[in-house]
């Protein structure tokens, strides 16, 4: 069984910073991509940032230049550094891994439980 555990959310004033972490437990053998999504009340879940196995990254336009995704393969952890936070960044942030517990075969989506980020104005 693979579990993703997020941490680092909280309440911060506009202009502040937070760093989210997502640690995976379980026997993951291959990773295709790791990412962060967010969902604000009444809105659909959206991609915030993603990093693939070759290190390529992509970001939502709304966070470019402010957020940075990174990973530590040895720790099976992905991070999201969020700077210059705005009230519109307020949402529940979810970690997502596209990975496999097998040497060959299909990829699976794994999700964390979510962590609340609230930015006050």
Describe it.
- With about 120 residues, the protein is mainly beta.
- Helix content is about 0%, strand content about 55%.
- The protein contains no helices and 11 strands.
- The protein has strands at about 5, 10-15, 20-25, 30-40, 45-50, 55-60, 65-70, 75-80, 90-100, 110, 115-120.
- The strands form 2 sheets. Strands 2, 4, 5, 6, 9, 10 and 11 form a 7-stranded mixed beta sheet that branches. The chain has a 4-stranded antiparallel beta sheet with strand order 1-3-8-7, with no helix packed on it.
- A hairpin with a 4-residue loop joins β7 and β8.
- About 30% of the residues are buried.
Features:
4-stranded antiparallel beta sheet, 121 residues, elongated, mainly beta
Please provide a brief summary of the model.
With 121 residues, the chain is mostly beta strands.
What's the average pLDDT?
95
Structural class, by secondary structure, is mainly beta
Strands, count:
11
Largest sheet: 7 strands, mixed
Number of helices: 0
What portion of residues belong to β-strands?
over 45%
Q: From the alpha-carbon coordinates, what is the Rg to the nearest angstrom?
A: 14 Å
Task: Give, in order, the helices and strands.
Answer: EEEEEEEEEEE
Instruction: Classify the helix fraction into a percent range.
Output: under 10%
The stretches of 5 or more residues where confidence is low (pLDDT under 50) are none
Shape: elongated
Rounded to the nearest angstrom, the distance between the terminal CA atoms is 40 Å
């Amino acid at each position: 069984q693979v579990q993703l555990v997020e941490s680092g959310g909280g309440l911060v004033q506009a202009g502040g910073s937070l760093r989210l972490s997502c640690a995976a437990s379980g026997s993951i053998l291959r990773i295709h991509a790791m990412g962060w999504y967010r969902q604000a009340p009444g809105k659909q879940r959206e991609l915030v940032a993603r990093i693939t196995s070759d290190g390529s990254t992509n970001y939502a336009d709304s966070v470019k230049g402010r957020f940075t995704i990174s990973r530590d393969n040895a720790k099976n952890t992905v991070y999201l550094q969020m700077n210059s936070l705005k009230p519109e960044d307020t949402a529940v942030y979810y970690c997502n891994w596209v990975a496999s517990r097998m040497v060959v075969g299909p990829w699976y989506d794994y999700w964390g439980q979510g962590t609340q980020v609230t930015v006050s104005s």
